[in-house]
Amino acid sequence: MKIKLDILRLENSESEPYRQCVVFETDDENATVATALTEINNKGNYKDENGKTVAPIHWECSCLQKKCGACAMVINNKPQLACNARLKLYEKKGIVTVEPLKKFPVIADLAADRSIIFENLKTMKIWLESQTKVDECVSESVYDASRCLQCGCCLEVCPNFYVGSDFFGMSGTVSASKIISSAGGEQKKEIAAAYKKHSYNGCGKSLACRDVCPAGIDVERLLVNSNAAAVWGRKIGKKNKKA
Amino acid sequence: MYRINIIGSGLAGLSAAITLAENSVACNLISLQNSERAQSVLAEGGINGALNTMGEDDNTENHFNDTMKGGVYLSDPNAVDGLTKNAPQIIRWLESLGVPFNTSGGEIILRNFGGQKKKRTAYARSSTGKIIMSAVIDEARKYEACGLIKRYCHHEFVKLLIENNVCVGALIRDRYSGKFAEFKGTVILACGGMNGIFPGMTTGTTQNSGDAACTVFAQGVEFGNLEMLQYHPTTIGISGKRCLVTEAARGEGGRLYIERNGDKWYFMEEKYPELKNLMPRDVVAREMFFVRRQPECGNTVYLDMTGLSESTWKNKLSDLREEIIHYLSTDPKTDPIPIKEGIHYFMGGINTNECHQTNVQNLYAAGECTCQYHGANRLGGNSMLGALYGGRKAALTILNISKKDDKFIDKSPDFKVLHEPFAEEASPIVIQKISEALLLGLGIVRNQKNLDYSLKKLCDVEKNNNLNLREKNRIFLAKAMIISALGRKESRGAHYREDYPNRDESFQKTSAVRFNNGEIDLKYRDIPERRISANENQA
């Protein structure tokens, strides 16, 4: 398989971005964008289509099996995990564009600083104040929410999220849904208020996030459940499970 | 006293940080990436603890015995005693943090796992590590908000600051700005396994480059049992790595077979009628290796999960099924899948005592980077437990020995440009050469000849005059692995020597290696006797 990677390069946050096209060849049918980036960097003297040596491409990765969210970037105009973006899909077209997530400050090349995601979770107080046991009737949705990679793909496509906004997007909403399901006492009110402020009020319900979640989380269901509990004061449980 | 510096924010690092914070002691939590990217999220099958919820009359002593036996008696029994006694309480703690374990009638269900005769493994379907991490990260966040835990993500451990064999801090580099700072104070290393020593050959993360281990080894920190590499029997090759097929697949009824004269031969069931497919991982991996070598057998071992029920797939192994379909385009519900052994866990690592202290004063280590609990072979379900308990134990040791009237100094580290040569990374080509050399000797079946050759190959790589510091340190640790494997002239657990196929009781010792003035010293340290006292070790 032979494919051209059209990569948006940026030496550092102050330099001018430029595009670099690199032809990547592999026998590996399952090769992904992550495979290509790894091999291009490992080879050391890879040349681009103009014969210029490709300087090491900055990107973040860790698990390579779509379980950690590190390698989220914009591939073929869609935010996704590089380790899940099979080159075979783009073979026919012969070219694939590879760019960093654009909602976040870019550090270099394909590495973006996503620390705002984690700051927002802190602001929203995503933790349990007191020890709680998850009720069996919400166990499934807590499980689903716990699978969130905090990769930022949902925020990249969200028309309402931007860094510095009061609206924290689906990564905040999904995390809050865990706490809404489990918190008791005073925290129940607190998390409901935080949810309204940082999730409900800003969400335009475009649900663009639904189609890009690399973990395949049923974000719509979590959203419906959390709206019901935090905004309308309904109990999450068996009744809402079918929502 | 300064903030305690914890290197690594996986399960062991988080556990240490939370324990310190619960006791109002502040720490820095330093990691290359956020905790969500740590290898702990990959753990699938579960966490062991004798909760005895399945009516099997289980207890912590059984867990102790299985862990010691599984590790073929190389673990410190007092450490394992603490681990297994605290396991039920640790699982209850996780439950109280909101981990949605699989339950029935409100009680945690336990599943079978390798090397254990009782159901003892609590789980959250087949993504237990990810689900546990999610809850533990939330708990740590509570203390981040009040400043007790201060995170330094995208920060890399460069080296320890050691004065007269006392660790006085660590040099840290901000990978975003490229600047360096000295973090003063006690250090807990929770930097994970050494996957990057074998790039592409392990089930772990690329983030665990092994650089931290190589650096501290070259700085004189003692390592133990480095020859003990765990090959997990059931992995599949995916682009760039080995992908684990959780042991839970066998725990829930998956069976291994190989084709022999055209028939399916369920060799584990025939050879080990009691535990069958759930023998400890070292035994299963070795049997797979041997049956493939038989002339009447095929070249591939299959994992047959076609007998598993609909509800098992839905409620217990949903993520696993999705993963296998994704990577192999085969539905394991209807078709057996080809599997192979892959490097999964490093039982060896930094040598600590049961209090998680290293040979360098004020330096502690916990989690997969140590060689504490798993001896010659780790039981499935004991890794997350070891990380959680080990991190906590290291923190408790620090709390116990720190002086109550010690004045707290909270000074933010001063990041500066470093005006001396710094090797940003080891060259992938050198890394690959070292890995290839090591694999010549450190396969599932080993012998003197291959190990000698492996060492010679490493010496060849070392002859290159242009090696940077990271590469040199990597060769030192690699040589120490081979020297440890050469020294252990017996077969025990994951270390199988075909030239010494039997266990030799004179080797029931920790193989301890140190880097000393350019030389690698190998010694054998006695394993302590187990103390008998009823309520000790309740951390």
Describe, in plain words, how this protein is organized in 3D.
- The complex is a heterodimer of chains A (243) and B (539).
- In chain A, 34% of the residues lie in helices and 14% in strands.
- Chain A has 243 residues and is an alpha+beta fold.
- Chain A folds into 2 domains: 2-112, Roll (Ubiquitin-like (UB roll)); 115-241, Alpha-helical ferredoxin (Fumarate Reductase Iron-sulfur Protein, Chain B, domain 2), CATH 1.10.1060.
- Chain A has a 5-stranded mixed sheet.
- In chain A, a hairpin with an 8-residue loop joins strand 1 (2-9) and strand 2.
- Chain A starts with a strand and ends with a helix.
- Residues 239-243 of chain A have low confidence and may be disordered.
- With 539 residues, chain B is α+β, with helices and mostly antiparallel strands.
- Among the domains of chain B are: 233-344, Flavocytochrome C3, Chain A, domain 1, CATH 3.90.700; 424-503, Methane Monooxygenase Hydroxylase, Chain G, domain 1.
- Helix content of chain B is 32%, strand content 22%.
- Chain B contains 14 helices and 25 strands.
- Chain B has helices at residues 11-22, 60-70, 77-96, 128-145, 211-218, 248-251, 267-271, 281-293, 310-315, 318-328, 383-401, 428-441, 448-462, 469-487, and strands at residues 4-7, 27-30, 47-48, 103-104, 107-108, 110-111, 121-122, 149-152, 155-163, 166-174, 180-184, 187-189, 223-224, 229-238, 241-244, 255-260, 263-265, 297-304, 337-346, 349-350, 363-365, 445-446, 496-497, 509-516, 519-526.
- A 6-stranded antiparallel sheet of chain B has the order 15-14-19-18-16-17. Chain B has a 5-stranded parallel sheet with strand order 8-2-1-12-21. A 4-stranded antiparallel sheet of chain B has the order 20-13-24-25.
- In chain B, strand 24 (509-516) and strand 25 (519-526) form a beta hairpin.
- In chain B, helix 3 packs across helix 11 (383-401), helix 5 packs across helix 14 (469-487) and helix 12 (428-441) runs parallel beside helix 14 (469-487).
- The longest helix of chain B is centred in the first third of the chain and has 20 residues, at 77-96.
- Chain B is globular, with a radius of gyration of 22 Å.
- The two termini of chain B are 23 Å apart.
- The model of chain B has no long low-confidence stretch (mean pLDDT 96).
- At the A-B interface, helix 1, helix 2, helix 3 and helix 5 of A face helix 4, helix 10 and helix 12 of B.
